[in-house]
Amino acid sequence: MQSPPVVTRFAPSPTGYLHIGGARTALFNWLYARGRGGKFLLRIEDTDRARSTPEATEAILQGLRWLGLDWDGEPVSQFARAERHAEVARAMMAAGTAYPCYTTPAEIEAWRAENPNRPFVSPWRDADPATRPDAPHAIRLKAPREGVTVIHDEVQGDVTFRNDQLDDMVLLRSDGTPTYMHAVVVDDHDMGVTHIIRGDDHLTNAARQAQVYAANGWALPVFAHIPLIHGPDGKKLSKRHGAVGLHEYAAMGYPASAMRNYLARLGWSHGDDELFDDAQARAWFDLSGIGKAPARLDFKKLEHVSGHHVAAMGDVALLDELAGFLSATGQPALTGTQLARLTPALSVLKQKSRTLPQLLDQGRFALIERPVQPDDKAAAVLDTVSKGILNDLTAALQNVIWARDDLEAIAQRIAESNGLGLGKIAAPVRAALAGRTSTPSIFDMMLALGRDETLARLADATA
Ligand code: GLU
């Protein structure tokens, strides 16, 4: 028999930004679905009305878009489905798998005081339906009291919960609003979710949720509870370790493709493969590769992965990433002239940069306008002797073919005629073209800038 198409989902509660852990959860679900021709759905768990502002939701969508994780269909609002959640709870009550509970908070508290360390058992659980008053009530699941609930988790293995340790959870509160735990099950069922990949902080919830599936006779999805991300010190990731919002990584200039690669490796592995592209990740990603131990965030490794992706990226993709980075950090987009000068240098700049700001810094010569303002070191290089050399060079470059070999030959000749090595004449050229002493090679800069701009900058420096 053919197995049903895979449907995964990401179900964030809007908190104002996309947490790096949430981003990884989304990525795992996306990879799993996309690698199997399945669907990846998005559900916004917006039942907490105080936190769930349109801005908070937009921040999450924005994060997913930046990371390149496309979802199928419209995002589902959990809040908007409250009536459906209530309908299911009422149907369960009619079917006898749930019951109305009229206990007040004070009564529950009194029960707890008399029964320490026991989950609450409602006196209405086994009450004769004829005795039910016509009064406001919650609806509770009539959960099994004996035996165990076992979650066959793809990551954690079989996890067993004693049913007498799980209370009859509330499905619908007396004010008619659904509980989160009930809403999740109804939503996942209605959305046809076949695989739930999420943080292992939801493992206990899975036991209660499995009871709701069973009570409704619904097929249980596959569960994979992934260990949460830890900081470099092995403690649960928190702000004191550094950036925890995906947008912070975007602002640090890690390309999205690098973040996808790095986050995929955070808790999942495919042999020793560290560096891979999306197609490989989609083909390789499987639940069996998810580790049981929490992965540690490793900023050095991220830098390394990022450098690989910057170097491997095609020019169009790289310029796209750069545009995204500039906009995410509130910087102006590159002008036509800047693009025209930067693009020919990209192949060189890529090899020298691990992040996008590093690339922009290396490529600064292509972004600045005349007259180039030399920094202190560059200004010191531009002494009278150097200016003389630059004059010679400028004269020699007037009629040369603007190609690497010809430029190199001219520079070599000028260096020799001044009794210097090529390195010695490179310093003032760097200062003149970039206003700095550390730059890409002078020939790469000349080729990227073109004849007119190069000659103009050399002339400016000797004026
Ligand atoms: N909304 C939950 C969270 O953000 C996720 C619930 C789930 O994946 O089942 O942690």
What can you see in these coordinates?
With 463 residues, the chain is mainly alpha-helical. It folds into 4 domains: 1-72 and 227-312, Rossmann fold; 80-226, 3-Layer(aba) Sandwich (Rossmann fold); 315-366; 376-462, Orthogonal Bundle (Arc Repressor Mutant, subunit A), CATH 1.10.10. The protein is 48% helix and 10% strand. The chain has 21 helices and 10 strands. It has helices at residues 20-34, 54-67, 82-95, 105-114, 180-190, 203-216, 246-252, 256-265, 278-284, 299-312, 315-328, 336-342, 346-352, 356-362, 364-367, 376-381, 384-397, 404-417, 422-434, 442-449, 451-462; strands at 7-10, 39-44, 76-77, 98-101, 138-141, 148-153, 157-162, 170-172, 195-199, 222-226. The protein has a 3-stranded parallel beta sheet with strand order 1-2-3. It has a 3-stranded antiparallel beta sheet with strand order 4-5-8. A two-stranded antiparallel ribbon has the order 6-7. Strand 2 (39-44), helix 2 and strand 3 form a beta-alpha-beta unit. Helix 17 runs antiparallel to helix 21. The longest helix has 15 residues, at 20-34. The termini are far apart. Bound molecules: glutamic acid. The site of glutamic acid has 7 residues, from loops. Glutamic acid binds next to loops. ATP binds at residue 239. It is found in: Cytoplasm. Catalyzes the attachment of glutamate to tRNA(Glu) in a two-step reaction: glutamate is first activated by ATP to form Glu-AMP and then transferred to the acceptor end of tRNA(Glu).
Helices, strands, pairings?
Blueprint: E1 7-10, H1 20-34, E2 39-44, H2 54-67, E3 76-77, H3 82-95, E4 98-101, H4 105-114, E5 138-141, E6 148-153, E7 157-162, E8 170-172, H5 180-190, E9 195-199, H6 203-216, E10 222-226, H7 246-252, H8 256-265, H9 278-284, H10 299-312, H11 315-328, H12 336-342, H13 346-352, H14 356-362, H15 364-367, H16 376-381, H17 384-397, H18 404-417, H19 422-434, H20 442-449, H21 451-462
Helix pairs in contact: 3-5, 5-6, 8-10, 10-13, 17-18, 17-21, 19-21, 20-21
